[in-house]
Protein 1
Amino acid sequence: MSDKADKPEPTTQGGNVAERIIAEFFAGIILYGGLGYLAERLLDVPYLFMVGILIGVALSGYLLIKRFGSSE
Amino acid sequence: MKGLFAGLAKFVVAPAAVITLLIVWLRPAPGQETVPFEEVEPGVHDFDFPAIWEFSFGDSEFFHLTINKPMVQLIVAAVAILVFFIIASKKLRVVPKKWQFGLEYAYDFIRSGVARDILGHGYEKHVPFLVGIFFLVLVNNWFGEFFLLMFPTWSTIGFTMGLVAVVFFYYVAAGVSEHGLKYFAVQVVPSGVPLWLYPLIIPLEILSSFVTRPLTLTIRLFGNMFAGHLAVLVFVVGGGWLITESSSWLYNYAGFGAFALGLLVIAIELFLGFMQAYLFTMLTTTYIAGAVSHGH
C-alpha cells in the first residue's frame, strides 16, 4: 500500500483503472445508499436515502482520487 | 483474395439463399389459413430451456437435478476444447503446418499478448488457467452463431456467475498464496487516507474488492451475450413474422430487410463473442495481477 512508483506499470493500466472506477462507484452507491435507505425506513426521515447515495459517491470519488489521482 | 470470396460464397451467400428460398416456399398463399411463424414474441422466456434429463435421488426437492441445453453446451465445449488441444499437441513439429500454426498463434495470443504483458515476472503459472478461460468463453460465445445450437451459454446469468466464481476464487487464492493472509488487509486498507475515515472506507473497500468487481465482470459478459442474442432473435423472428404473417406486400419486403439485418447482427455477434472472450481474459489477468503484485 505504498506509492505507485515501485509497481511495474502494466500495458493495460487504462482498462484496469476504468474497471476499478466502476467497481468503486458501484460499491459506494450500493453500500451507503443501502444504509441511507435503511435509515430512512427506520428513522422515518424522507431524505436520508439521497444523502446516503451522495455520501457514497463522495467517498468513492475521494478514494479514487487518492489512489489514481497522484500518479499522473 | 479469390479464396476469401469463394469461402464467402460457400459459407454466407449459399446458406442465406437457401434460407430465403425456404421462407418464400413456406409463405402461405393469399386466402389460405396462416400458420404463425412464431406464436410468441421473442423475450426473456427464450432463454429458459426445458429439462433434457432429470434425476431424482429420493423425494427431496434439493436432490432433484435437471440437465438442460446450456449445461450440455458447456460440457460439449469443455470436452471439445480438451480433445482438440490433446490431439493438436500430440503431433507437434518444429516447422509448423497450417493448423499447428493457428493453434500456436491462438495460444501465444493469450500467453504473450495478455499474460506476459500484464502479469510480468512469474506469469507462467497462470497461463494454463487463462488459456482455458479464454477458450471456454470464446467457444461458448460462438455457440450463439453455431447452427446446431444457436445459443450463447453465457447469456444465462447463472452460468456467468459460476464462471466468475471460479475466477474470483482463483485470484483470491493467488493473492493468498503470494502474500499470505496479509492479502486481505492489503486489499481492504487504503493508503494515504486519514485514520478517522477508516470506519467509512474499509466497508466500502471490502464491498468494492470482493463484491462489485466480480459483479461488473459478470454483468459485462452476461449483458453483452444476452443483448446480442436477443437482438438476433428480434430481427430473425420479427423478419419472419413480417414475411409470413403480414398482409401488406410492403411489410413482406421489409421482412426480408429485417432478415438480412439479422444476418448482419449475427456477423457482429461473431466479432463481439471474440471481443468479450478477450476482454474477460484480460480483466481476469488484471485482477490476478492486482492480487499478486507487491507495492499495491
Note: Residues 20-69 of chain A form one domain.
Protein 2
Amino acid sequence: MIDKQTTLAEAIGAIPDGATAALGGNTLHRAPCAAVHEIVRQGKRGLNLVKTAGAYDVDLLCAAGCASAVSAGFVGYETPFGLAPAYRRGVETGTVEAREHVCASVIAGLRAASQGVPFMPLAGMDGSDLQAARGFARIADPYGGPSVVAIPAIAPDVAILHVQQADRSGNARIDGTRFEDVLMAQAARRVIVTAEEVVDAVEPAAVAIPGFLVNAVVEVPGGASPCSCAGVYAYDAEALKAWTAAARTPEGARAYIEDRILAVAGVGVGA
Amino acid sequence: MSEESFGPPEMMAVALARLLRNGETVFHGVASPLPMVATLLAKRLHAPDLVYLSIAGGVDASPSRLPASTVDPVLLEGARATVTLAELFDLSARGRLDVAFLSGVQIDGRGRVNMSAIGPFARPTVRLPGGAGSALLMPTAKRVLLWRAKHDPRVFVDELDFVTAAGNVERVVTPLCVFRRAEDRLVVETIHPGVSPDVVRVETGFPVEVGSKTPVTAPPTPEELAVLEELDPGRVRASEF
C-alpha cells in the first residue's frame, strides 16, 4: 500500500497557478472548504474552477483573487443566503470570467475527459443563448439523426474532494449524495482527497473513489465546514451569513479573509 | 381552518401540487423550496405513486424536516434508492422525465428564462447565478413547470437580456396567477383569489389578456391546507418570499 497521507499545505502546494481545479460537493454541501481556505492562504492565482453548482468555495476563491474563471452551471447560496456577492463582483468588474455551463454540460465535459474522448454529445440546449455565448458547437449526427451539441472535454489538472472517510492510499468513502465527485476523480490528472477521518481500511463495498486514482490524502475533521458533511455536520448558517454579509464589499471580504482565514494556520495531520 | 388562512405561499404550493399527476417522475434542483413542498404535498394528497426525484439524489425521500437548502442531505431520508445528478439528467435527456421544476430571474411571454446575466453576457451589469440544469431540462423534460415567488414587470419581461433556457414549459405559477403556455405564448389561465385582473396586467411586462371573465384559481381546500401544515410546520414554503 502506498501511503499518500500528507498535510494540507503540501497537498495544496503542489497545485500550480493557472490550474483548472474541480471542486467536489454541491452548493452548501460537502464542498472542500478547508482545502479552499489553504488555497487562499497560499495565494494561488489564475485558477479555473470547475463545479456543477458552487457557493462558498467559488465565492471565496473569487474574493481572494485566486480564481480567474469559473466553469459552473450555478453559483449561489440557494434560498437561505442568496446570490454569491464576490463571484458577482468579480464577473461584473471583469476579474473573473463566467464560463457558464449547464450543470449537465459540466458533467458531459468531465465524462469526455474520463472516457478519453475530445468532446461529449449533449441532448437539449435548443433555444439557449449559451450555445453561442460559450461557443459550444452543434454537430451533425454522422449516422443521419438529429444534431447535438458537442461539449469539449473538461480534464481538471486537479480534483479536490472532501469525503467522510479514506484510507492512507486514497480509497475514499462518500456517505450521502456523491454529486460529481467520482466523475471528477476519473477526469482529473491529480486527485486530492481530504477526509473527516483517515482509517486503516475502508470497507471495500463502500469505496466511492478507488485509491489508485488518488494522489494525496489529508485528514481534516470539519473539512467541509461551513458547508455540510452528510452524517457528520450540517452547514454553519451563522458562518455563511457572516461571510455573505462581509462579502458585499471588497473591503468587507478582505477583512473577513484576513481575520478568519489568513490568521488561522493550516490544519491537517502533521501540519 | 378558515378559508382565509392562506396566503401566496400556500396558494402557490397548492397550485403547483395540483399540477402533478400520480405516477409521474418529478424532479427539482437547487434553490427550489416551493417545488419540494409541492411535490411532497402532491404525494400525500392525490399522487401517492409519484416518483419524487431531487438533486440531493434521493428517490421518494420522506424527510423528517424540510430543509431550506434543497440539496440538503436530509432529502435522502427515507429514500428508496439514490441516484446521481448525472443519472437524473440522463433520464430527462432520453425523454423519460415527466416533470421538471424550473425558475427564472426573468421570464418572457414565451416562457423562456434568463438565469445568466442582466446586461451583456461577457460583462454584465448583474451577474446572475446561472441556469443550473435548465438548458438541458427545459427542452427534454416532458412537462416543465416554472414558478417564481415574485410577480412584477422586472421578472415577467417582454424581452430577456439573455435566453438561458427555452423549451417545454407548460405552466407558470406566481403569487398572482397561473399562466398556461399555448401556441408558444403565456396566457393567464386563472387568477388567484383576491387578486384583481388589473394588478396582473400591470405587474406583467408582456401583454396579457385578463379581465372579469378570467377564472379564479380554486382556493386551497381545508384538507390541502391541513396536509400542507402537517408537512411543512416550519413554513419553508414561505422562504422564497
Note: Chain A touches chain B through 52 residues (CB under 8 Å).
